[in-house]
Amino acid sequence: MTQLEIPVVDISRDPLTVGREIDETLRTVGFFQIVEHGVDPDVMDRCWKLTRAFFDLPDADKLEIERQTGSSYGYFPIATESLAQSLGGMGAGDLKESLNALASPALRHTPVDDVERELFTPPRWPSALPGLKGAWGAYGREMNVLAERLMSIFALGLGLDATFFADKIDQAPQALRAINYPEQAAPPADGQLRAGAHTDYGTLTILRQEMGRGGLEVHDSRTDSWIPVPAVDGAFVINIGDLMAQWTNDRWTSTLHRVVNPDAGSTVSTRRQSMPFFHNANYSQLVECLPTCLGSGARYEPVLAGPHLSGKSRKSVVTA
Ligand SMILES: O=C(O)CCC(=O)C(=O)O
Ligand SMILES: [Fe+2]
């Protein structure tokens, strides 16, 4: 059997052509990379560098914005999250620290309950790094534009009108996260990874990963093997999450992925940074099988997008 290929797609071409190609890819691999995406390279670079500077701050400055109970965002210290736990069971804490912030455009409605309010808590920013807020704001705006464009390409690929998703994602709790995977001075515990195997939760994820620092791997269920996702200069890695898989009635796959540990004793730096933008549907959006994906019948009960998301992210918190 041929090894699974993660394609690199130029999305500046005709959206219907791109949509059809992506439809093929998401039926099998669930992951692809995009180039010619139009995201301002200066905005990308500034955000990336300031984010690295955040992780380089003394712990006390980072802990000033540690995630509070009742908020989904803030600074998560090393090993306080286990992505593998989101699939059930218990997992060792992931060997990473992260910074998380709401990245939605201004909400035009009042949250329907405390869980939605939690997803819309305004981010806090470190006093030691005044430029970070603006840099994340600018990058978050670029991510929203790109995600909306991808959702429109997705709609075309699914045989729907290009605007099908527009009013279903315009008030959603979008989240931007930066992850720092530090060098590993001590060997990891048994089964402990940089990020345990998981699927993402929402509609789609737009990930920037560091050049030349591997670690992200995608599961090939046909051969039960793990395929590395190579870093491509200027590209974003795109994958869909569980909500989109349900929406498409499993026509598209929410693929299992993980971030593996670097080799012990490496002579070059093994520190790695990544920035995923997690795109979601509106909190109260009912997600039920799309009209073009019904096939021989709906496999899932309809779900509300917001509670589905909150349920998953709560499971990943490591309790001491
Ligand atoms: O750091 C990466 O490359 C991927 C991280 C990831 O899969 C996640 O945070 O959901
Ligand atoms: Fe992920």
From TrEMBL:
Per UniProt, residues of the Fe2OG dioxygenase domain are: 171-281
Pathway info: Antibiotic biosynthesis
Gene3D superfamilies, per database record? B-lactam Antibiotic, Isopenicillin N Synthase, Chain
What is the superkingdom listed in this entry's lineage?
Answer: Bacteria
Q: Does the record bear Metal-binding in its keywords?
A: yes
What Pfam families does the database record attribute to this sequence?
Answer: 2OG-FeII_Oxy, DIOX_N
Q: Where are the transmembrane segments?
A: none
Which key words tag this protein in UniProt? Antibiotic biosynthesis, Iron, Metal-binding, Oxidoreductase
**What's this protein's family per the entry?**
Belongs to the iron/ascorbate-dependent oxidoreductase family.
- The identity of this protein, by name, is Fe2OG dioxygenase domain-containing protein
Q: Organism source for this protein?
A: Paractinoplanes bogorensis
